[in-house]
Design brief:
Layout: H1 4-13, H2 31-46, H3 53-77, H4 97-105, H5 123-136, H6 140-162
Helix pairs in contact: 1-2, 1-3, 2-3, 5-6
GO biological process, one term: regulation of transcription by RNA polymerase II
Biased composition (Basic and acidic residues): 150-163
Region (Disordered): 115-163
Length: 163
């Protein structure tokens, strides 16, 4: 008897748009991936599992994250981790390896940070980081990081002003 995770791995494996980062349309959040998740949910329901497409996606992401973590620990330690949430699925998830390696090998644009050697304070560093990051990425996650850095910078200025 197969578990929900065995079935999920098998069904997702048949839909490469979900995990193949080289596939056209992977980066776009759109109808192709949504349709794939709906098809996965339908297959899972046909196999007797009461789960919708959002539930499939959540379980897959948790399983993939656990596999990636265990895979990294195996590389570092040379042996399987003592406690593993996906040990029995490790071999079944090995088909993800080329795609995980490709993801890490993708080139990223990195802007050099220019330090002002004449300045003693850290404001030159923070302003350069803020400018280079804001030019490259306007995602909500990045903006919140920028706000956190800016907030830390503002707090340090307030401390200096209070003295």
């Amino acid at each position: 008897m197969s578990t929900i995770f065995d079935d999920l791995i098998e069904v997702v494996k048949a839909h490469p748009i979900i995990y193949d980062i080289r596939m056209k349309g992977y980066q776009k959040r759109g109808s192709r991936r949504e349709k794939a998740w709906q098809a996965v949910a339908k297959c899972m329901q046909q196999r007797g599992h009461d789960i919708n497409d959002d539930g499939c996606r959540r379980r897959w992401n948790k399983l993939k994250f656990a596999y990636t973590r265990d895979r990294t620990l195996r590389r570092i330690q040379g042996t399987p981790p003592l406690r593993s949430s996906c040990a029995k699925y490790f071999e079944s998830l090995a088909f993800l390896n080329p795609f995980l390696d490709d993801y890490k090998a993708r080139p990223r644009t990195v802007q050099p940070i220019v330090l002002d050697s004449e300045s003693d304070d850290d404001s030159a560093i923070h302003s350069t980081v803020l400018e280079s990051e804001s030019e490259n990425d306007n995602s909500p996650n990045n903006r919140s990081h920028l706000l956190a850095v800016k907030t830390e910078e503002d707090q340090s200025l307030e401390v200096k002003n209070d003295e």
